[in-house]
Amino acid sequence: MDFNQDLITTIHEYRVTEDSLLNLNKGLGKKPTAILIPCLFEEFKRPALRQTRDVLKDLKGLNELVIALSAKTAEEVNEAKDFFSSMPFPVHIQWTNGPEVIELLKKQEHNGLDLIGTPGKGWAVWQGIGIATRHSEVVALFDADIKTFSSSYPARMLQPLLDPSHGISYVKAFYSRLSLESNVLQGRATRLFVGPLLTSLEQIFGQGAFLKYLQSFRYPLAGEFAFTRDLGMNLRIPCDWGLEIGLLSEVYRNVRLSRIAQVDLGIFDHKHKEVGKNPKEGLQRMCSEILSSILRGLMEHQAETLTNSELATLEVLYKRVGQDRVKQFGLDSAVNGLPYDRHQEELSVQRFSKILRPSTINFLESPVTQQLPSWSRVLSCEQNLQRDLAEAGSANKSS
Prior knowledge:
- The chain is of the alpha/beta class.
- 47% of the residues lie in helices and 13% in strands.
- It has 15 helices and 10 strands.
- The chain has helices spanning 20-27, 47-56, 74-83, 99-106, 121-132, 152-162, 188-205, 209-215, 229-232, 243-254, 282-302, 308-335, 342-365, 375-381, 385-393, and strands at 9-11, 33-40, 64-70, 91-95, 138-141, 170-177, 225-228, 237-238, 260-268, 371-372.
- The strands form 2 sheets. An 8-stranded mixed sheet has the order 1-9-6-7-5-2-3-4, sandwiched between helices. It has a two-stranded antiparallel ribbon with strand order 8-10.
- Helix 7 (188-205) runs parallel beside helix 11 (282-302).
- It is globular.
């Protein structure tokens, strides 16, 4: 690993830490800390979540584990509670789509608040932040499908936030996405879409402040991040596949760059999505929504948008840069002895290039998207909603 620094403070993996768990357990005594895992019930049937649970058992001093669970029945919620019953710290299972939660959030319409988000990770994250920040000053979020989860993940994510002398408010993960089964490079949405897209946009718009900020993150689509309560309370949460870029936009809006860090978690593997046969499926749909989120950020933070001629330029530039990246990743894989299917990578770039024009046109016709309001705004209307949401999410009534 290199030791370079740029706009965003980078915490490298030098592979010299002897006991990250020991250091983390010492740090947890400094600030009340929660871990948040948004989760579908189906993850309880897979080995990844079991591994995560077994690793977290060794944490001493964790204030709370919050599981933001999408489940069909109260029986599934009870299964989740049983699954985590042996943890040595409090566990809150938040039934995000439970009937009492839906009823409670619908009542907020009288305050002019639309809190019924599109079912998905964004809505779960929004609820989880509300629950986790009740009693904790620091929160780390991890997905439920991480196959390589180890104690170094929470240790490296949380330590910059647990020592106030560092002055950090937000930590974003980056890593090498490799399949455990095949050693093939994953992360195509980042490698073959977002990376070439940002490079192409820089050639069109120049190196504006927001664009430079996004390019400073080594893995902008990483779903793992940690934050202070103050920041978490002021984040608006997107409800689509643009969640990660949308959150980076919110962090940019709320935090000085000197208070942001990114941390290397090493080798990382979780579920992989297919590219999809059409723009409404798989990674193509995901990248379409990511594109909208990036364009929205450019509007909001740089007051810039694509004209028709610039869109045509983007199509040409993106394809060229994407093809260059395919060659680069091919060499990277070859020297490291990794299998690499250049033809499939080229096809992915080709498919992604075809979504640029229709996705941009659709975005420009309707640039405003649904965002769940920040908790600071919500509590200004309904000061007990965090408590009430936690109680509703713990209810055992079936729908």
